């Protein structure tokens, strides 16, 4: 019952907004602004009218949506692995940040979309150029947060590990990484929403594959319900990815005192 | 009694940006096997520098430290430290049991680690809390986890850096008695660094009194109290009272360093001003040391890590 009311509470505003949108768009009756019901019908037609053997999914899903999501996840994943390992290593070395600090700040300041033409030249049109765009764009929040997190390990933990002669691998995996985890996750979350943006951007140039390109084609062909359906799909995708990451984060950082759902009773002797 | 720890002619000077600061001038003492020795000295006198040189975290500028006959170069294999700040020294992402087992992963099987952790937690009376996280426990209990972690490591020497300075008075008494109990049961050699005079006399078989900075040994007092001590009766015994007075005198507690007669001639206001200046200078010096020491510890730690890797690749 409480679960249900919580769910209702969370979605009632959203549902209300959709109803208002429906009413407004019907009243305005503008081809550029189709009502949500029309968008939903379009979305159904586009993606969910496939054969039963494919779980009702259409070819568009297999040809455009899934490859897009795949590139997003691959790009984000590569950035996560590179960013966390490089960031933790750099965070624990005083020299590395002194030398690399200005370079990092410079590279981070470049707006990633402006590099699309550069990556086009280097990688040609295709998956590798799209991946490069996503990786380059989302690497920085992960890298810098990892550096910050690795630096935040306090001297007492360092000395404790040194005194007990904790081997280096155990020190990195068992002390530095968990201590840096809250900051790393913050970076990962920022990057995930950023990779959705860059996925779309990378598909707007020189390709006819992916959600971004389909969106552009729909717009050029004045197929506004399809265009809006694409936008809604991106929103749903972003929401879903964030929810999955959050639940993973909650599990990984369950040890944090403030994350415990109920106030834990302090045990007194 | 065979010497477990032998410190000979130890001196340490920090190189800071604005010149050299001598934290320890010339220290020599021995700690016998199974002994509990307390080092007491005024704040900022180099006690923690002493502790860091013994634990191999920093290399002293001069002198020699040997642990059961082996010279200390880098962190010794069988030495454990209980730090003052349990909230930072324990790993919050591990359970109590995980914390105690953490240093044992080197060389012990899972089952062995489990047995040792369970054993050590029983010694400190925390068996029931094994699956809890440190932050779910009171401060006193957290420090007991740190003590259990040190004991499970089976150290030849247990170093304690102001171990009970961050808990309330009641808990402090309990932890002092707990330390005396486990140390009697397991014949551990312990060196406790403290600034609390009463604590040093209550805990110690011997009390080493250090001078203000740069540190040197002013007195090495034998504590002639029965091995079984009691927070009430021991503290009111004549021997205890006499000893604590002697330590206090040696530490010059409550007296300004300068000639008292000279002081009287200066008006009160100026005395206060002068004291404030002294205190500021002291604090400033302490802060500078702390900074230099941190830098040095990090460097030494990195070196130690390299040596450790060499050991493992062999």
Automatic annotation (TrEMBL), chain B:
Coiled coil: none annotated. InterPro entries: AAA+_ATPase, ABC_transporter-like_ATP-bd, ABC_transporter-like_CS, ABC_transporter_ATP-bind, P-loop_NTPase. It comes from the Bacteria. Residues 5-237 form the ABC transporter domain. It holds the Pfam family ABC_tran. GO terms for molecular function: ATP binding; ATP hydrolysis activity. Keywords: ATP-binding, Nucleotide-binding, Transport. Residues 261-314 are annotated as: Disordered. This is ABC transporter. It comes from Saccharothrix coeruleofusca. The lineage of its organism: Bacteria, Bacillati, Actinomycetota, Actinomycetes, Pseudonocardiales. The gene is ssuB.
């Amino acid at each position: 019952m409480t679960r249900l009311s919580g769910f209702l509470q969370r979605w009632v505003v959203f549902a209300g907004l959709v109803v208002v949108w429906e009413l407004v768009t019907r009243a305005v009756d503008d081809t550029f602004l189709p009502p949500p019901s029309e968008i939903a019908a379009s979305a159904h037609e586009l993606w969910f009218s496939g054969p039963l053997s494919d779980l009702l999914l259409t070819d568009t899903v297999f040809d455009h949506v899934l490859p897009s999501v795949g590139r997003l996840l691959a790009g984000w994943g590569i950035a996560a692995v590179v960013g966390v390992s490089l960031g933790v290593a750099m965070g624990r070395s005083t020299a590395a940040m002194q030398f690399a600090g200005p370079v990092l700040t410079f590279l981070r300041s470049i707006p990633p979309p402006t590099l699309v033409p550069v990556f086009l030249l280097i990688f040609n049109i295709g998956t590798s150029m799209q991946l490069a765009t996503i990786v380059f764009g989302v690497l920085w929040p992960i890298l810098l947060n990892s550096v910050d997190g690795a630096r935040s390990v306090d001297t007492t933990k360092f000395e404790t590990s040194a005194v007990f002669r904790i081997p280096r691998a155990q020190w990195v995996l068992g002390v530095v990484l968990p201590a840096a985890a809250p900051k790393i996750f913050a970076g990962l979350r920022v990057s995930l929403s950023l990779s959705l943006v860059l996925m779309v951007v990378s598909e707007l140039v020189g390709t006819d594959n992916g959600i971004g390109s389909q969106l552009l084609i729909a717009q050029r062909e004045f197929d506004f319900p399809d265009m809006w359906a694409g936008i809604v799909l991106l929103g749903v995708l972003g929401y879903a990815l964030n929810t999955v990451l959050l639940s993973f984060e909650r599990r990984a950082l369950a040890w944090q005192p403030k994350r415990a759902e109920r106030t834990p009773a302090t045990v007194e002797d | 009694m065979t010497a477990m720890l032998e410190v000979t002619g130890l001196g340490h000077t920090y190189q800071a940006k604005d010149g050299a600061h001598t934290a320890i001038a010339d220290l020599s003492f021995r700690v016998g096997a199974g002994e509990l020795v307390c080092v007491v000295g005024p704040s900022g006198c180099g006690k923690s520098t002493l502790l860091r040189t013994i634990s191999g975290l920093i290399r002293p500028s001069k002198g020699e430290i040997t642990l059961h006959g082996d010279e200390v170069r880098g962190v010794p294999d069988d030495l454990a430290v209980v730090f003052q700040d349990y909230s930072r020294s324990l790993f919050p992402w591990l359970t109590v049991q995980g914390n105690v087992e953490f240093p044992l992963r080197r060389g012990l099987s899972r089952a062995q680690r489990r047995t040792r952790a369970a054993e050590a937690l029983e010694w400190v009376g925390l068996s029931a809390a094994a699956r809890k996280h440190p932050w779910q426990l009171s401060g006193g209990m957290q420090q007991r986890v740190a003590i259990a972690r040190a004991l499970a490591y089976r150290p030849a020497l247990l170093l304690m850096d102001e171990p009970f300075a961050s808990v309330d008075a009641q808990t402090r008494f309990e932890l002092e008695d707990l330390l005396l109990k486990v140390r009697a049961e397991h014949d551990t050699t312990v060196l406790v660094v403290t600034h609390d005079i009463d604590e040093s006399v209550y805990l110690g078989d011997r009390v080493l009194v250090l001078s203000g900075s740069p540190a040197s040994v002013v007195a090495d007092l034998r504590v002639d109290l029965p091995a079984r001590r009691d927070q009430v009766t021991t503290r009111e015994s004549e021997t205890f009272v006499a000893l604590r007075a002697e330590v206090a005198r040696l530490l010059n507690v409550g007296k300004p360093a300068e000639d008292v007669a000279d002081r009287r001639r200066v008006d009160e206001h100026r005395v206060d001003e002068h004291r404030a200046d002294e205190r500021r200078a002291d604090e400033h010096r302490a802060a500078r040391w702390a900074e230099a020491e941190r830098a040095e510890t990090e460097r030494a730690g990195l070196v130690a890590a390299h040596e450790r890797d060499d050991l493992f690749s062999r």
